[in-house]
Amino acid sequence: MNQTTNIFGLRAIIEAINSGSTINKVYLQKGLRGNLFFELESLIKKERIATSFVPVEKLDRLSKNKNHQGAVAQISPVEFEDIDLLIENTLEKTSSPLFILLDQISDVRNFGAIIRTAECTGVNGIIVQQSGSAPVNAETIKTSAGAAFKVPICRVNHIKDAIYTLQASDISVIAATEKTDNLIYDLDLNKPLAIVMGSEHRGVNPSVLKIVNEKAKLPMLGEIDSLNVSVACGSFLYEIIRQRL
User: Fold this and answer.
1) Are 61 and 97 within one domain?
2) Which residues contact 66 (CB under 8 A, 6 or more apart)?
3) How far is CA 110 from the centre of its chain?
4) Which residues constitute the domain of residue 124?
5) Rounded to an integer, what distance in angstroms lies between the CA atom of residue 63 and that of residue 55?
6) I want to staple 148 with a disulfide (CB 3.0 to 4.6 A). Which of 67, 103, 121, 144 is the partner?
7) How many domains does the chain have?
8) How confident is the model at residue 209 (pLDDT cuts 50, 70, 90)?
9) Quick one: 234 and 170 in the same domain?
10) Angle at 39 between CA 37 and CA 45, to 5 degrees
């Protein structure tokens, strides 16, 4: 199984980004300065790569005490797909595509569990936002039981752009949210669909809720008012499958 690869050194990371490597995240030493650092920082901002400023001890651990020069980057073990090509290729194969959009889900185990369920339910692709989203790393792949290598994953600058792109291809976008009276069981799901699952802490962003085609929720009969996001996603997906079978 592929694992997340760490590379270290300012110049090495600059070259990796320029060569098109898929970078999950760059860790930079707090207080770092110098021309090469500023060149890397500028490149990171341009490419909108997730970044954390951390103590030198964290970098020592990530690089196993090798000469990291104050910078360590995680390269993703999977290649991300282009969203326009994914939609185009999917529509050539099926008249009822199914996509998942993850609105800044940050827990890698939730991400991995969703990927696993997506593969089991025939989802055509998963779309995540570049910033604020869990990376595809070794833990994600382990939790997905290897499904991360089987389900196409797209990374976009903003989830709203992805929604507009899907809608332009006549794919209806449904947000999973408690802020509605519609139960998922009452909607017609036998059509081209994308479902939006919100983050663990705040759910689907209000600005995203404004542009989706429909909103839906699951009935909650206990005292706790929300499900784990991967469980909720699985419930949505299997209702879609039930209607389509």
Assistant:
1) no
2) 8
3) 11
4) 83-244
5) 13
6) 144
7) 2
8) very high
9) yes
10) 100
CATH of the domain at 142: 3.40.1280.10
Phi-psi region of 145 (alpha: psi -120 to 50; beta: other; left: phi over 0): left
Nearest alpha-carbon partner for 212 in 226, 198, 195, 199: 195
- Averaged pLDDT, 107-120: 95
Which residues, including other chains, have CB under 8 Å from residue 50's CB and lie 6 or more apart? 24, 25, 26, 130, 131, 132, 135
* CATH at residue 23: 3.30.1330.30
What would the two tokens of residue 65 be? 């005490």
